[in-house]
Amino acid sequence: MLVLGIETTCDETAAAVIERAADGSGTIRSNIVRSQVDEHARFGGVVPEIAARAHVDLLDGIIERAMKEAGVGFAELSGVAAAAGPGLIGGVIVGLTTAKAIAMVHGTPLVAVNHLEAHALTPRLTDRLDFPYCLFLASGGHTQIVAVVGVGQYVRLGTTVDDAIGEAFDKVAKMLGLPYPGGPQVERAAGNGDAARFALPRPMLGRADANFSLSGLKTAVRNEASRIVPLEPQDISDLCASFQAAVLESTADRLSVGLKLFREQFGAPHALVAAGGVAANQAIRSALQDVADKAQTQLIMPPPALCTDNGAMIAWAGAERLALGLTDTMEAQPRARWLL
Ligand code: KG4
Ligand code: ZN
To answer: CA-to-CA distance for 179 and 157, rounded, in angstroms?
Structure first.
């Protein structure tokens, strides 16, 4: 089956066509992502109104390119899938409404996909992974540990009680005067820094649940930074290194607990899967490898372009649902919040 996927929940306007064979394997026929980073950079973060308008401007062209590159006509599609949330509601409305229009005009089945479910199912496209497995999703908007038990069967084992990890990286970058998006900047600065210079808190360490908390750590960075005047590049690097070390230690601890909870409820996972923009961080990647080794499971990270927001993951989640006969009606609603 051929499925078109549309992603507009944040600041990427994306569309892709994937093909799913009867044996459950998938092929990406096209995957077009237009990042709006330039539109938002001068505001130091994503501005929802600007994102929504940019999706309106860009989406038609992106879909056209995705269909053309895939060499597929609308009449050949087995389904059209759109991320119906969670996300910035203006953008979600643009994507879902466009998918409904295509579905209506061409009589194509519609699938309203949960964006988080799409992240969760991506390793089945890239690595043909079997259920169950443990997902660590860490992006600018989400930080979750999820047991992926089957299509539509997700059990949240842990989540952040305040900021998402990527959000914390972005806020720390902003307070230290580094440009948006801050994650890669903080990682780069940390590379030249002394992680032992500042004694920052390790949030939630040793707790029996698998939840995260980042806001106290972020505040601790702000307090340390405010005591240094003027703030020199070396101070910034040391703060970034100390912050990143604290995130690593806390993340490793939270994930080990998450994997323990997973085992208790579902037995051994087939893998620990990391997704979301934060998984692009090399230091975090190696920390995750340690966690997986200790838990005697494999670490799977879909390639970066499929870890961050894209249309292929939405198309794939749509195809997985379609294969089970799960479609949606024109009544499907866009949702700003939508738990897995
Ligand atoms: O998944 P993603 O592209 O978009 C969503 O938020 O859905 O993730 C973006 C987030 C941003 O907060 C960004 O700062 C963070 O991932 N990020 C990083 C790195 N690269 C991206 N955080 C830490 N280190 C990085 N190298
Ligand atoms: Zn995402």
So the answer is: 33
